Amino acid sequence: MMVLETLSVFPQLFEPYMSTSIMGRARLAGLFSFEAHDLRDWTHDRHRTVDDAPFGGGQGMLMKPEPIFEAVRDIAGRGPCGAHVVFFSPCGSTFTQRHARRLAGKERILFVCGRYEGMDERVYELADEVLSMGDYVLTGGELAALCVMDAVVRLVPGALGDAMSSVDESFEGSLLEYAQYTRPASFEGREAPQVLLSGDHARIAAWRRKSAIARTATWRPDLLDGADLTQEEWALARRAMEAGHEEDEANEQ
Question: Is domain 2-153 classified as CATH 3.40.1280.10?
């Protein structure tokens, strides 16, 4: 069973999400366990202080190194196996589905969540890896940790019910997921592709492959370099990109 843990000054933020929907069902099924630790439990003053002013001046407060070092060493050293320690920072590697697949193979992960203006630089030596959720700023690392845990848990066998659900979706194979439709087949003059109603699984699979390539070429052409495409599929991708460029130019006029 995978063990997920967080270290935060707001541990109460996690439980509602971790007990709901897919995460909640997977947890109840014993596919993973979760525990949120309060960083203030490793402070030793009556105010349970976790932050202080930065040396050299500047805006805001920084998280102090002492409680983080003590907490991570304590938590990671518990149990039969050490924890894989993950910190979050704009300096980290941008989190992708590739990271999620790799982390899904870990037995135990501890996510350390920053707050305020950041953390004392010395704490990063505790990290096995440092991740970034993208080029934007969050109030704290709790949302980042929830995003990563969600992406990881859905890859645990049995979490989604259908074994193909975690494979047949966006970013697997460096492609976005194909377009999808449901009832009604006709809505305000907009028709669902007839091939999806045909019951011909081979034709449906072929259509979905083309749809995934075309959508990726239109919206995320940067992903195509990692995709395994035939010459015919590359031609389809180029046509989709050209059509997208023509539409952009028309909108600018």
Answer: yes
Residue ranges of domains in the chain: 2-153, 172-252
pLDDT digits (tens, 9 = 90+) for 149-200: 999 999 999 999 865 455 555 677 889 999 999 999 999 999 999 999 999 9
List Cβ neighbours of 3 (8 Å cut-off, separation of 6 or more): 32, 33, 35, 79, 83, 107, 108, 109
Separation between Cα atoms, residue 168 and residue 171, nearest integer Å: 9
**Which CB contacts under 8 angstroms, 24+ apart, belong to 225-234?**
225/174, 226/174, 227/173, 227/174, 227/175, 228/173, 228/174, 233/209
Domain 172-252 bears CATH identifier 1.10.10.10 = no
What does R_g of the chain's alpha carbons equal in angstroms?
A: 23
Those residues with Cβ within 8 angstroms of residue 198's Cβ, 6 or more apart along the chain or in another chain = 204
Look at residue 79 in the predicted model and tell me its pLDDT.
81
Give the dihedral sign, CA 5/11/14/18: positive
- Coil, helix or strand for 74? helix
